[in-house]
Write a structure and sequence with these properties.
Elements: H1 2-19, E1 27-32, E2 35-40, E3 43-47, E4 53-58, E5 64-67, E6 73-76, E7 84-90, E8 93-99, E9 105-111, E10 113-114, E11 121-135, E12 140-153, E13 158-161, E14 182-186, E15 189-193, E16 199-203
Antiparallel strand pairs: 1-2, 2-3, 3-4, 5-6, 7-8, 8-9, 10-11, 11-12, 12-13, 14-15, 15-16
Amino acid sequence: MKKLLILIVCLGFYAAAFSQILSDIDEVYPFHGNFAAIKKANQWAFIDKEGKKTIDFRSDLVLTNRLNSLNQTISYPVFNDGRCLIRKLMGDTYYYGFINEKGVEVIKPQFLYATNFTNGYAIVVLTSKDSIGFNVVLNKAVVSNIMEEYVINTAGELVKYLYNPRKNVQANYKGGVPIIESKFIAPNLVAVKTKNKKWEIHQF
């Protein structure tokens, strides 16, 4: 009887020890699809619906604002269409890309900003240079930096140009993230704000 009691107590301790999957977590956020974000210090990870950590803690995940049940804004990383936003500091500027559900970088950070994916597409901001003349005194070309918006698919391919370039922006965008002036309104329709602050509807 005594041995049985000891065995029961040991099994109880064993079950208690192994029922705890993760510990020492600062914040746990709601599931979004198949994954929930968890936070420890300034790093984020993801768990699945069995409580197993699928992506280890890292500091490059981009937060998304969402409303909770009390209509309060909370911010945490999410997966949409199998993609989660990341950012990487290159020089003085953050560039945005995406990882897949295994934590593998599938779209390298190259965009000045990007939205989460919706119905298989995201809107991104790219920069380019436009030669506008030549400075004889300095013996160099004069260029204008341009920000342009595009629709991309989950492979990172450019699907649609959104016809609203912004010229003469800073070479290194230090004013926070740029405002994306386009928005999805249906699975294959995007609304684009023009220079005169009117809207155009484009299909892709």
